[in-house]
């Protein structure tokens, strides 16, 4: 007789298994607002509060890198008033939150094509990036006017410009986020199961976690659930599974 199939689900490993780098697609602001008969822009405002909670949570859990998708290259196709409101929200957040972030030990930077952004906004972004955080606890990257395909193309152009042959290594050197580890965990809220042109290159081996929670409702418990789920995953990076004991539990 065949032995019983071991359970596929491993118990949560030690609490020390925290992803070093978490990436987040903060989806569902519009629906959250519409369900409350509010304008979509109100959803983004509450979304900004959820982002502040997420940053605090990541610091508390010991996540070292957090990358969030704030505005995609495709988001320009939204109604003009929504785009304007989002840009105003980013400016407001930069003006109000930079000092507080630094006080929490969070250093901030942006990735994406800045060329279509207003000069005043670009200057605030630069100032925020220049604020010195001694002993950073969390490196927060905000992807703004970012697209994964744009990132690959700009990296290829940069590699060719330096006369390099196109290889995985020469391209990787020029990708946005080349200086930090690739995301261990991608969280997408809002119920859709797609990447939406986020970090296409960098997510090659990332664990994907989809939640039906709408972004403004994503709270401390939601983050803890995502981290807990991550802690149960077995990451193989193309290798064979790690050794299991007869009960099916992972031991290495
Ligand atoms: C997607 O929800 C969300 C966005 C396009 C904007 C994300 C921005 C924030 C969370 C605001 C705070 C950010 C910063 C950096 C201060 P959606 O509008 O597509 O929602 P829907 O799918 O319900 O329409």
Radius of gyration equals 20 Å
What topology, given as strand order, has the largest sheet? 3-4-2-1-5-6
CATH fold description: Undecaprenyl pyrophosphate synthetase
Q: How much strand?
A: 5-15%
Number of helices: 7
- Spell out the helices and strands N to C: EHHEHEHEHHEEH
What attributes does this structure have?
252 residues; alpha/beta; Undecaprenyl pyrophosphate synthetase; 6 strands; globular; binds farnesyl diphosphate
Q: Can you walk me through this structure?
A:
The protein is an alpha/beta fold. It has a single domain, classed as Decaprenyl diphosphate synthase-like (Undecaprenyl pyrophosphate synthetase, 3-Layer(aba) Sandwich), CATH 3.40.1180.10. The protein is built from 7 helices and 6 strands. It has helices at 29-35, 40-61, 80-103, 119-130, 148-161, 168-172, 220-231, and strands at residues 21-25, 65-72, 106-111, 138-146, 185-188, 207-210. It has a 6-stranded parallel β-sheet with strand order 3-4-2-1-5-6, sandwiched between helices. Helix 1 crosses helix 2 (40-61), helix 2 (40-61) packs parallel to helix 3 and helix 3 (80-103) runs parallel beside helix 4 (119-130). The structure holds farnesyl diphosphate. Farnesyl diphosphate binds at residues 26-31, 44, 47-48, 51, 70, 75, 89-90, 93, 142, 190, 215.
